[in-house]
Amino acid sequence: MTQRLFPEWHPQDAIQLTWPRFDSDWVLLLDRIEATLEAMVVAIARYQSVLISVPDAATRERLAATFSRLGVDARRLRLIEAPTDDTWARDHGPLGVERDGQVVLLDYTFTGWGGKFPAERDNALTRKLGDAGVFAAPIETRELVLEGGAIETDGQGTLLTTEACLLNRNRNPRLDKAAIEAQLRADFGVERVLWLSHGHLEGDDTDSHIDTLARFCDERTIAYVRCDDRNDPHYPALSAMQEEIQALRQADGMPYRLIALPWPGPCFAADDGHRLPATYANFLIINGAVLVPTYADPADAQALAALATAFPDRDIIPIDCRTVIRQHGSLHCLTMQLPRGALK
User: Fold this and answer.
1) What angle do CA 276, 277, 280 make, to 5 degrees?
2) How far apart are CA 184 and CA 177, in angstroms?
3) Which tens digits make up the pLDDT trace of 118-141?
4) pTM of the model
5) Is 173 a domain residue?
């Protein structure tokens, strides 16, 4: 049996989004987050379909009318009613693998990042969508606690992740590093697991998801967050992470092509002033384009230019994520790509 985890640049059927409930943590920012999500849908639908789980029929009807008004092709929009807790599809959505030439969706256990937040409905969402007849691919449930934002793959047998997340005792306390790595190898067909032991963002609820720090852009290229400000509290950990990434090697022993992403100015919460985990690494690769989070910061232009060198054959599309970051996530966190062959 041959098996692999699809890299994000593999051709996609759709991007999955989860629309916020009116009574969720977004209640005070609902208009703003909906505007951000609308901008994302309009951008994505130029290239491919969008699957959106919505909390109720009223929201489904309202969004259908909204996107029709915004010029979104109805054939590229699927709105499915399903109960959820929050909006972070990256972490409660399914992970697509190729097994003997067929697409299979793996449904891992989601616990709200180690029990920090309610997650029972989010954890059941993939099965709900499956029951609704959304998927063409079979769904397999896994007991392992794992979020999509915690792993990156080159699609060629290498997985990149962080010790701070996957080895955190709030995820799989009965499994040590060797046992977790064995499960990753079995499920994803990977031959190498590259572990980063440094790197974190203040205000991050995920325990250092890799998609906030370092990302595969292709089989030989890694884009990563670099902090050049020696006075910033992130400088020691991110400098140590940079050294780790520079020491990584491809399977053939060659160094990776590395693209350093700039460091945005600090974003702070409006209520108590704590720092928010703004990062340009939280970009999204879709068919023909890359959506990049921006923060109305001078470094936005540098980030867009850097990623344009990583993706010369794709359009680079900025998405204002100043509202998203107020709930401690960003653009990639809101999305899950569904590989070609996943949807009916």
Assistant:
1) 130
2) 11
3) 999 999 999 999 999 999 999 999
4) 0.97
5) yes
